[in-house]
DNA sequence: TTCACCCAAGTTTTT
DNA sequence: CTTGGGTGAA
């Protein structure tokens, strides 16, 4: 963030003669070494519009970073005249590192290299005052005269949580039933408008019926309210900048002149607002280089427009289109399978990926009885790969990943891996800064920095519980509104007026005084790490979690400690809050060798020697929704997701599906994914888990056989799997109940139970544990390795003795 | 005001 | 089967 601070675009542009001198200086260009001809063209075609169509694994980041280095090295632009935008902080960081490595430390300044949002924050802070509230009288709205009518440079960036709460207030104020018209869905609608760069007055009349005919009205109120609070949401960062560029040609021109070269990563993921922003900036010189892959566009559901990339040549006539088609990642069969699959999509720009890595393993396809068998088999397969049981040689766990369509699929794997003690890491779960306790703590910090932050006030005024319920909070709101002051001052006023009764008043006074004290400490410049600790102590927040008996409480305290530790890297609380608003990364603990589990979306841009793609069943992948709604378009997006999944694999890609799956607690029989039919038989090897057709064998025995390598038979095509009698038999177990022949659930009478409370028991899945409670045939067991679970008695056996070793 | 219970609903996610 | 939110009683 601080990277740009010393780079005012309005200062010190190089004169032309200076540029010429720089250009004349010959230098070796090591960054060009080893580039293939297409990559080289992408680097050396510096002027005019360039569209780099870079297929999966074709070295686009390499080309992109070399291009930046080349622009600087040839003197075309000073580093900070280059604008390079990415979607994620991770991509930005990687590019920064690589450009830095290419150029060495010897250059002045750095490129404007960041996410769309971080660049926009920088720009918007300079021009915040140009965003003003629309005053064309809306009776009854929430305008308060004493508040400023424009955004100010020190605006705060709201997170999703704040947005929702704000919208909820507006919905209630509009006398709408917040149950029928949930704030979440309004947030979705408004977000969609912002993604399309639509301000409230520009929302087309055809959409006037949105949100019970009041969508646009609430949108306008929401935007007003944000300016009152001197706040913006994520969508505003782009929307406001587009608005400024459109309404203030002078401002736009300055930046058009300043950013001489523009580079865009993942262009297929841009939404309309981002597209307009780019087009406005590039309009003058047209030195824009967009890199993308239409086949990897998987964010349509959140506003990304594949159309942006498809019509690049129309937007920028004479654009040079460069295709990167040599794939350096995957072996032949993997690439062939992915290419064939994606060829079912229409309206592609079209690429033909090829590789020099001939041969290698075919894509493997395997059907399982149910989701648990699938998890079990994959766990064993991962351990087999680790031992080097396959041709590709031993793999570390870090080299293997499981990519799922929906996050709820992760659970089966976590459960299984926990019980067999296989280390794993979940990527992209709830992020650190989105956790409840972290947001609460941050709200306290926000109040300390700016006591007028009403949203922060609302969040923590009664956390921990201070006996301030809805009524008390309404009183505070009323007093504050009448006096036209912040909620904190309103609270103070309410206490003085005696409007808050009982013991709540004393606790509230304590809270208000606390905030005043902490704010004073911030102003004094007191050490912010110590102050943060003090705040959490004095507010009773730490104590609240210490007193909490739920199993999560220790973890939350641990997170709070981590938060305080993270503060050390910053100069003060303000700096920290600014950073966190945009960078919601969770630094995944590196180091230990672990299998990765993540969604397909989270896997974009990553690669692994071995990849497992479970759950390829109609209704799961493609998802039910994609099949029901959205028609061909959303089905094509699912197919691209499948393409992304397969192309993550370097050496081994294993696709699997299950015949039965528990969906919301109900057993359902599943059909294999339609995408499986689209894989080329010649590049696929069908594995058949023994026992799948046997009927009588238990799953454990079956997967044991698979695990030892025995009995894996090869089939001609995957269609054989689900046209076979065995598969049909699995389908015969219809929905509702557990597939009985397989599951062997034994219902036991409570008095026939072979064990009682306190006994040691064993379960195939969770290992050893102690019986806590028995309820009919459901037993609650505290397992040694995997915590407390409720298990049907039929799945348990009496454990020989508590001292026996756990066999994993 | 708060805690305990009942009920409805349930992709993908970055900033 | 979970989870979150809303309702009712202490």
Automatic annotation (TrEMBL):
One of its GO terms (biological process) is recombinational repair. The keyword ATP-binding applies. Signal peptide: none annotated. The keyword Endoplasmic reticulum does not apply. GO terms for molecular function: 3'-5' DNA helicase activity; ATP binding; ATP hydrolysis activity; DNA binding. ATP binds at residues 54-61. InterPro entries: DExx_box_DNA_helicase_dom_sf (IPR013986), DNA_helicase_UvrD-like_C (IPR014017), DNA_helicase_UvrD/REP (IPR000212), P-loop_NTPase (IPR027417), UvrD-like_ATP-bd (IPR014016). Residues 332-605 form the UvrD-like helicase C-terminal domain. Its EC number is 5.6.2.4. It catalyses: ATP + H2O = ADP + phosphate + H(+); Couples ATP hydrolysis with the unwinding of duplex DNA by translocating in the 3'-5' direction. CDD domains: DEXQc_UvrD, SF1_C_UvrD. Pfam families: UvrD-helicase, UvrD_C. Keywords: ATP-binding, DNA-binding, Helicase, Hydrolase, Isomerase, Nucleotide-binding. One of its GO terms (cellular component) is cytosol. It is an enzyme of class 5 (isomerase). It comes from the Bacteria. PROSITE patterns: UVRD_HELICASE_ATP_BIND, UVRD_HELICASE_CTER. Residues 33-331 form the UvrD-like helicase ATP-binding domain. Has both ATPase and helicase activities. Unwinds DNA duplexes with 3' to 5' polarity with respect to the bound strand and initiates unwinding most effectively when a single-stranded region is present. Involved in the post-incision events of nucleotide excision repair and methyl-directed mismatch repair. Belongs to the helicase family. UvrD subfamily. This is DNA 3'-5' helicase. It comes from Paenirhodobacter enshiensis. The lineage of its organism: Bacteria, Pseudomonadati, Pseudomonadota, Alphaproteobacteria, Rhodobacterales.
């Amino acid at each position: 963030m601080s990277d740009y601070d010393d780079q005012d675009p309005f200062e010190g542009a190089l004169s032309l003669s200076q540029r010429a001198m720089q250009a004349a200086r010959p230098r070796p260009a090591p960054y060009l070494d080893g580039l293939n001809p297409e990559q080289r063209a992408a680097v050396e075609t510096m002027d005019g519009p360039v569209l780099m169509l870079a297929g999966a694994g074709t070295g686009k980041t390499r080309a992109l970073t070399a291009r930046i280095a080349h622009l600087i090295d040839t003197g075309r632009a000073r580093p900070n005249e280059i604008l390079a935008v990415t979607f994620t902080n991770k991509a930005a960081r990687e590019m920064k590192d690589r450009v830095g490595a290419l150029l060495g430390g010897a250059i002045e300044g750095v490129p404007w290299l960041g996410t769309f949002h971080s660049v926009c924050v920088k720009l918007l802070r300079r021009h915040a005052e140009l965003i003003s509230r629309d005053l064309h009288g809306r009776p009854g709205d929430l305008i308060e005269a004493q508040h400023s009518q424009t955004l100010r440079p020190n605006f705060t960036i709201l997170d999703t949580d704040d947005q929702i709460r704000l919208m909820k207030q507006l919905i209630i104020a509009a006398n709408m039933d917040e149950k029928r018209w949930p704030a979440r869905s309004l947030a979705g609608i408004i977000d969609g408008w912002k993604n399309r760069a639509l301000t409230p007055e520009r929302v087309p009349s055809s959409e006037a019926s949105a949100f019970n005919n009041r969508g646009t009205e609430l949108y306008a109120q929401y935007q007003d309210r944000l300016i009152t609070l001197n706040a913006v949401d994520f969508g505003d960062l782009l929307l406001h900048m587009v608005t400024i560029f459109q309404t203030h040609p002078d401002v736009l021109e300055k930046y058009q002149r300043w950013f001489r070269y523009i580079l865009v990563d993942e262009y297929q993921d841009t939404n309309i607002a981002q597209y307009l922003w780019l087009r406005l900036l590039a309009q003058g010189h047209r030195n824009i280089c967009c890199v993308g892959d239409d086949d990897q566009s998987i964010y349509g559901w959140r506003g990304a427009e594949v159309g942006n990339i498809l019509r690049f040549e129309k937007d920028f006539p004479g654009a040079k289109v460069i295709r990167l088609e040599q794939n350096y990642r995957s072996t032949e069969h993997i690439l062939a399978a992915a290419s064939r699959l994606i060829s079912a999509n229409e309206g592609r720009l079209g690429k033909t990926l090829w590789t020099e890595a001939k041969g290698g393993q075919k894509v493997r396809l395997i059907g399982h009885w149910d989701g648990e068998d699938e998890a079990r088999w994959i766990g064993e397969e991962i351990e087999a790969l680790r031992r080097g049981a396959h041709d590709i040689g031993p793999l570390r766990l870090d080299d293997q990943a499981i990519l799922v369509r929906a996050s709820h699929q992760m659970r089966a794997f976590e459960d299984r891996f926990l019980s067999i003690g296989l280390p794993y890491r979940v990527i992209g779960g709830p992020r650190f800064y989105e956790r409840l306790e972290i947001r609460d703590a941050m709200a306290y910090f926000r109040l300390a920095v700016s006591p007028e932050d009403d949203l922060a006030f609302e969040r923590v005024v009664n956390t921990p519980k201070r006996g301030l319920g809805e009524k008390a909070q309404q009183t505070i709101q009323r007093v504050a509104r009448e006096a036209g002051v912040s909620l904190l001052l309103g609270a103070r006023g309410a206490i003085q007026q005696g409007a808050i009764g009982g013991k709540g008043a004393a606790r509230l006074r304590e809270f208000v005084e606390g905030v005043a004290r902490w704010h004073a400490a911030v102003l004094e410049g007191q050490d912010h790490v110590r102050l943060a600790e003090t705040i959490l102590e004095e507010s009773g927040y730490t104590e609240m979690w210490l007193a909490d008996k739920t199993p999560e409480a220790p973890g939350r305290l641990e997170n709070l400690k981590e938060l305080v530790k993270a503060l050390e890297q910053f100069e003060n609380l303000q700096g920290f809050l600014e950073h966190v608003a945009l960078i919601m990364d969770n630094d995944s603990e590196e180091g230990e060798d672990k299998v990765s589990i993540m969604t397909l979306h989270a896997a974009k841009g990553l690669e692994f020697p071995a990849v497992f793609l479970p759950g390829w069943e109609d209704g799961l992948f493609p998802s039910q929704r994609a099949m029901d709604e959205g028609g061909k378009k959303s089905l094509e997006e699912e197919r691209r997701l499948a393409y992304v999944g397969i192309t993550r694999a370097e050496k081994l890609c294993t696709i699997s599906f299950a015949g039965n799956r528990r969906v919301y607690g109900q057993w359902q029989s599943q059909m294999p994914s339609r995408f499986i039919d689209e894989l080329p038989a010649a590049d696929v090897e069908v594995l058949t888990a023994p026992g799948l057709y046997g009927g009588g064998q238990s799953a454990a025995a079956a997967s044991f056989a698979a695990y030892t390598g025995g009995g894996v038979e090869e089939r001609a095509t995957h269609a054989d799997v689900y046209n076979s009698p065995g598969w049909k038999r699995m389908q015969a177990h219809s929905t509702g109940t557990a597939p009985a022949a397989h599951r062997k659930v034994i219902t036991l009478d409570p008095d026939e139970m072979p064990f009682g409370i306190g006994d040691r028991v064993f379960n195939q899945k969770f290992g050893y544990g102690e019986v806590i409670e028995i309820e009919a045939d459901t037993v609650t067991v505290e397992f040694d390795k995997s915590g407390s679970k409720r298990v049907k008695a039929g799945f348990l056996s009496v454990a020989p003795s508590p001292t026996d070793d756990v066999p994993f």
